[in-house]
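Appendix C reproduces, verbatim, an entry submitted by the partner laboratory led by Prof. M.T., so that reviewers can inspect both the input and the predicted structure.
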Amino acid sequence: MLTRLVKVYSRIPLPWIRQFGRLLGWAIYGLDKRYRSRIQENLRIAAVTNLNVQNAAIAGVGAGLAEAPWVWGYTPEQLKQWIICEQTELLDELAKGSQPVVFLTPHLGSFEMTARFLAAYLHITVLYKEPEALGLRAFMAKIRNAENLSAVPANLGGVKTMLKALKAGRAIGILPDQVPSAGEGRWVPFFSRTAYTMTLPERLAQATKARVVIVLGTPLENPPMGKTYWRFELEEMLETPSPENINKKFEKIILNRPELYLWGYNRYKRPTGAPAAPTQASQSPHASGSSDA
């Protein structure tokens, strides 16, 4: 039943879905006081003061939520027709090579689309958080998987599956700015505070000699040619994907397009069992810059 509803939903024009989502974003912001306070605090920590940027970010959260089930209704190959990417040569190189690849994506823009975009070029295994409602788990497992795309739960079994994929010369995808469980991260600077940041990308890359590539999906509101809904960009990360290096990279990426970041995410929470955060974070050189630039 839910799968059928997704199919029906995905036939609604995406611009309509996004417009509805923007209204949803503002509704959530207005009704949920704790969520509203978290957005305001995270924007303050990152020194994002431009009101237009803040408003776009609030609406953008809802647009992203509304867009996700629309995306699930299509295969990676079908979605490819609505995407612009000027670095397909790199994707073809990665697909034809035997070296494993770790793709890293921040909670920015159309991050739900990233795995499906990559699956149009190569096989990729990604982690996802299982819903707490047991009745939804079978549905989410089915809907997130697609041709060339294997979605595995974010648990020990899922990590083992990802390691196996890398050892077989395949690709994996991770959202490294997601707060890990206790023992799977360390406290490092992220803007002007410390955030518990996962060590998984570094450990997997070192264990398998994998290439590390950052991939970003930007939703396009005024398509440059025909019905083009997304632009994807890739950048190979030559530094070790340590928590420190990833956070520094992501700070620059986020401040370059702050209106697309998921500011409502509880990035600075302390996982159960994790050590206490340092009392004073090292001030990031990027946090003091103006978002108006």
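DSSP finds eleven helices and nine strands in the chain. Additional entries are available on request from the coordinating office.
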